[in-house]
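Aim 2 progress update. The chain analyzed this quarter is reproduced below.
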Amino acid sequence: MSECDFMRETMPLLLTESVDSERRELTHQHIERCADCNDAWIGYREAWRLMGDLPEVEVPASVKTRFLASVGETEGAPIVVPFRPRPALRWLAEAAAVVLVAVGSWFVGHRTAPVQLQQSPATINSVADSRFSIAESRVLPANALSPNIEGRPDIQNITFTDTNPSDPEIGLSFDITSHVTVTGRPTDKSMVRLLRYVLENEDHMSPSRSRTIDWVRATYSRAGNASPEISDALANVLRNDSHEGVRIKAVEALNKMQGIASSDTREALIQALKSDPNPAVRIKAVEALGNLARSGETLDPAAVDMLRQKAVQGDENMYVRVKAAEALRSIHP
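Predicted structure tokens:
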């Protein structure tokens, strides 16, 4: 049985709330990342809603008698009875849900004449623009949210507002923590922007920024994955991070990645070579500029001047001076 088949077997149990919390969470996560199962889940919920609108029909006496006999009850039994767990009852309820939802889904997917449905408030799954937007804060009307809270999101810092007591609207503000997985190609614009944000704003994130830079270097140094935005983000890390180990990682990544010849990344390398307090960072910066020169790139006058200064600077680290002189020889053999 495939994962999708297993998850679709769980969907009717979600509707009847007959599934444990762990399996419920796994199913919701699968629905979020699988387009086919998401469509199936929408069909299940719509069929369930349609069945809820159907009129109640009196159960035929013969059916009622057979059902009571199958569960060990008789007609006219007391309404209030001692509770006894009956696994068969839950199994019957689940089986009924499966049958009803399957019939309803078939009806929705195979009808030949249009079915007239009453308009209902938009939910998060039916909003026209379904793209997920990452924002620090947002204001949403209540009818733009699904009334079903899926999974167990962590809601904190709750405040209640009623800015205008004369109107019927109230407000509920909160911070919400949920786990999001974003998948895509390294060159996807959304993926690049997300990684750039992570690189430049990872003070309170996990894993560490050094590990993130290692992963970015391995991914974006591959042929075809070069991204000027990622290089610019690493340049900002090189300029601004207070941890020398992180700055070293940033220079190493720029040295390995294609596309570091942009003016922004070159200027960050020149500034690091000129004034970074850690000699290891300066060594890595001069190596990156030297590799640029050896690869045939034309260094701008500012980079050449800085290499000349470092090659003859008496109080500079000896290895930096040697590497600067080697880079100059690559420019002027």
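The two ends are 66 Å apart (CA to CA). The chain has three domains: 3-110, 150-177, 189-331. These observations will guide the mutagenesis experiments scheduled for the next reporting period.
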